[in-house]
């Protein structure tokens, strides 16, 4: 049945078939523009677009769907294409600088020209880079404590995977697999693994790391409110056997406070999901010490709330949080307030293709302490997708899902039916709920990340990450996407997909 043709009346496209083509393949009637690629100059200062773009977020200028700022995460570097290999097991000072410079994020200004094509404006006053060298402040309960070795500030952000948008138009960018860069650069790793906040429009907004949201391999941050008006942030910890989290602020969101609402991310409670009981468990120092049950080593490690926030995963598992199959992106359905979690896969338990889990909070209240859950859609050759990762809703209640079968495993026969990684549209309501329809196929040895629509849904932004990742010899790359004339290597790039009618 794999690859059967499906026609969906409510979708605006005829699904494509899996392919191994070294291109972004789209249904008939759709095109894409390469907006910014690794190494492109983004502003008058000559700063350049970072490597391995991930999360994207569009911020309209004057409400426009054709002119705005695009925030883009840069997740990691490459020995083959960026720094060159280590020498005697270590990067040189210059390589470390490069390693930090290509990660973090970019603010770029983009606009559609007279032909409707998306272009980057390199004369922009807004465009800037935030990197592994840019100063940040630590905020919240762990800032300045012994748990972070007294630090109130941190050098830079890196390993920026997915993220989220606040209701006050700032970006939450998530530090995911921070360990290797911190080690390679000789930086204190308690300063990384946080959710960081940035205002793309305002360089005077203090760049901050929110310790109240815990320190782990942060995938994303999905923001909503409880029925009584407090802020909620759902988060995945992208590791095998790791928990699903939510944070609830102490105080309520007040629209008129604007960016002052950022303080809501500094005072609140972090919870981990116990799926066996359908309960959210509060990560308090008291709960953790009680669960330590007299174990000297644990009681030594967990003495303050800051210790809990810095060692979140260990604390969460100790109090009964459920280990899950690599929780990646989380989205709150704007239609019924159920929570969609991409559990990408976990070979430790034979979950090769992953699934999308759906939490239903009691009374549909994001502030509830109880929930039910179901497997909403399972990966595999029947459903047509494997390894769901980033998620994004459209206004027809479809869940746009990109996949991340790792490049190293794509030669195994269980992954053969899927071809290159892709993008799938999965209705969450109606007769076709849970069925996946392929919308896009990614270039060779890449994944598509960071789906984000313009408010009118006429453009879908996507970040094409790590094309040609399987390359061993830079002179003989496995992909040359985006195939621009003059390029001699593949380049991660952000694209705008057009062709949507509304
Ligand atoms: Fe960076 Fe979990 O993907
Ligand atoms: Ca991801
Ligand atoms: Ca998302
Ligand atoms: Ca992934």
TrEMBL record:
Superkingdom classification of source: Bacteria
Annotated spans, Disordered: 469-488
InterPro entries: PhoX (IPR008557), TAT_signal (IPR006311)
PANTHER family reported in the protein's UniProt record: DUF839 DOMAIN-CONTAINING PROTEIN (PTHR35399:SF2), SLR8030 PROTEIN (PTHR35399)
Listed name of the protein: Tat (Twin-arginine translocation) pathway signal sequence
Protein source organism: Alteribacillus iranensis
């Amino acid at each position: 049945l794999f690859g059967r043709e499906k026609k969906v009346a409510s979708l605006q496209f005829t699904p494509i078939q899996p392919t191994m083509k070294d291109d972004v393949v789209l249904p008939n009637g759709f095109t894409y523009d390469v907006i910014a690629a690794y190494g492109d100059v983004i502003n008058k200062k000559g700063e350049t677009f970072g490597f391995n773009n991930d999360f994207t977020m569009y911020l309209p200028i004057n409400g426009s769907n054709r002119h705005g700022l695009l925030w883009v995460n840069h997740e990691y570097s490459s020995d083959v294409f960026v720094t060159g290999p280590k020498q005697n097991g270590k990067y040189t000072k210059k390589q470390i600088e490069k390693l930090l410079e290509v990660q973090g994020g970019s603010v770029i200004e983009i606009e559609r020209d007279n032909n409707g094509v998306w272009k980057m404006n390199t004369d922009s006053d807004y465009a800037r880079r935030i990197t592994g060298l840019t100063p940040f402040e630590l905020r919240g309960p762990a800032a300045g404590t012994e748990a972070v070795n007294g630090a109130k500030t941190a050098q830079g952000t890196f390993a920026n995977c997915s993220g989220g948008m606040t209701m006050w138009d700032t970006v939450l960018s998530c530090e995911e697999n921070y360990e290797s860069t911190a080690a390679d650069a000789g930086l204190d790793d308690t300063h990384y693994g946080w959710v960081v906040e940035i205002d793309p429009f305002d360089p005077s907004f203090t760049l901050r790391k929110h310790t109240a949201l815990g320190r782990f391999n942060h995938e994303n941050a999905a923001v909503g409110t409880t029925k009584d008006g407090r802020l909620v942030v759902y988060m995945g910890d992208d590791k095998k056997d790791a928990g699903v989290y939510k944070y609830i602020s102490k105080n309520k969101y007040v629209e008129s406070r604007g960016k002052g609402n950022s303080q809501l991310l500094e005072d609140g409670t972090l919870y981990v999901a116990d799926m066996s009981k359908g309960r959210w468990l509060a990560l308090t120092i008291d709960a953790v010490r009680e669960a330590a049950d007299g174990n000297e080593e644990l009681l030594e490690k967990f003495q303050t709330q800051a210790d809990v926030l810095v060692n979140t995963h260990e604390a969460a598992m100790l109090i009964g949080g459920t280990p899950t199959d690599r929780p990646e992106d989380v989205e709150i359905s704007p239609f019924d307030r159920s929570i969609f979690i991409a559990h990408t896969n976990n070979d430790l338990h034979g979950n090769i293709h992953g699934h999308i889990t759906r939490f239903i909070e009691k009374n549909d209240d994001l502030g509830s302490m109880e929930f039910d859950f179901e497997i909403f859609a399972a990966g595999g050759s029947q459903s047509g997708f494997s390894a769901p990762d980033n998620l994004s809703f459209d206004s027809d209640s479809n869940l746009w899902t990109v996949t991340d079968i790792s490049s190293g495993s794509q030669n195994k026969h269980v992954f053969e039916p899927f071809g290159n990684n892709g993008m799938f549209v999965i209705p969450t309501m109606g007769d076709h709920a849970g069925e996946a329809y392929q919308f896009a196929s990614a270039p060779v040895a890449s994944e598509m990340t960071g789906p984000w629509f313009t408010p009118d849904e006429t453009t879908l932004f996507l970040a094409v990450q790590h094309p040609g990742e399987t390359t061993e010899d830079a002179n003989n790359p496995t992909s040359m996407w985006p195939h621009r004339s003059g390029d001699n290597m593949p380049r991660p790039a952000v694209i705008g997909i057009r062709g949507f009618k509304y």
